[in-house]
Amino acid sequence: MDEEVTLRLCNLADVDDLYEFASDDKVSAWCRWDTYTSKEDLLNYMKTGMIPHPWMRVICYRGRPVGSISVTPYTGADRCRAELGYVLASQFWGKGIATKAVKLTLETVFKDLKDLERVEALVDVNNFGSQKVLEKSGFTKDGVLRRFWIHKGRVRDMILYSFISTDPLV
Amino acid sequence: MDEKTSEVNQSRQFHEVTLREFELTDVDDYFVWASDDRVSPWWRWDTFTLKEDVLAFMEKTVLPHPWMRAICLNGRPVGAIWVTHRTAEHQCCAELGYVIASQYWGRGIATEAVNLVLGTIFGDMEGLERLEALVLVQNVGSQKVLEKAGFTKEGTLKKYLIHKGKISDMVMYSFIPADN
């Protein structure tokens, strides 16, 4: 498993592979974005959102893009903090790929992003899969933020997880 | 009226906390806490030294603020309280902040002001589901105010932000309508 999961920068040629999961309702259900219905829209997002992103990687399994992972820093007085997000094609769920991708990210992101001290992740209270990924990757559960977020029309409680630069890599 | 009742009535008379919108004519009162070195360490701003700067701040930030009120003690501003959305899209959640002039600390004024806000904010702000407050771990005074007002402590967030040049831990509190 270990060598089979790698991270690399995104390029536009990845659009077909990324579209496979971006157009999957099962995948977008937990994500902030709506299921993609056109490759053009995805290509546009890749050009404007993914490629210029401060820290975004494509998750590859045996060399093939099966997901993406990003760490988005805040600015100003909040620049020591960044939000982790990731998405994985549903046929690859349950194999430990997301956990491996998160661990690979934590190994380098604190060096890559100059002011970063804290990586946090917000997970829906019902998203048990993602909670496990973060716990296995060494994140700490900071607490439950009640009625924090409106997700696709519904007010949700979210669990806040964090990984500090000095925390041990698992 | 016996002596005791008259005393109680007197202390009530001299301790009425109300909220109202700010006006530029409040600048002298605003300057009192804005220029106080005892107050500014807890807040992101640096101590103001010039009244013109406070006036400019009131014009630019205070008066146009979507929800900001003067905390008045017997009709005179002794502090400020505000509720701000994190982002334009994140409307269900807003952050509470407040400041009280240091000579009025320890009298329960902040707690009363917070209670007054809790009484109206969910009606005033459409779509608001959550009022939160982030407090420096060392700001025990503010933590007590929020706890007395019925906020729930959700957790300690390590290395959350940079406060006066130092990376600081914050405590997250929240109040939701069901808490009433």
Automatic annotation (TrEMBL), chain A:
Residues 5-162 form the N-acetyltransferase domain. It comes from the Eukaryota. GO terms for molecular function: acyltransferase activity, transferring groups other than amino-acyl groups. It holds the Pfam family Acetyltransf_3. InterPro entries: Acyl_CoA_acyltransferase, GNAT_dom. Signal peptide: none annotated. PANTHER family: ACYL-COA N-ACYLTRANSFERASES (NAT) SUPERFAMILY PROTEIN. This is N-acetyltransferase domain-containing protein. It comes from Rhynchospora tenuis.
TrEMBL record, chain B:
PANTHER family: ACYL-COA N-ACYLTRANSFERASES (NAT) SUPERFAMILY PROTEIN. Transmembrane segments: none annotated. Residues 17-177 form the N-acetyltransferase domain. One of its GO terms (molecular function) is acyltransferase activity, transferring groups other than amino-acyl groups. This is N-acetyltransferase domain-containing protein. PROSITE patterns: GNAT. InterPro entries: Acyl_CoA_acyltransferase, GNAT_dom. Pfam families: Acetyltransf_3. Signal peptide: none annotated. It comes from the Eukaryota.
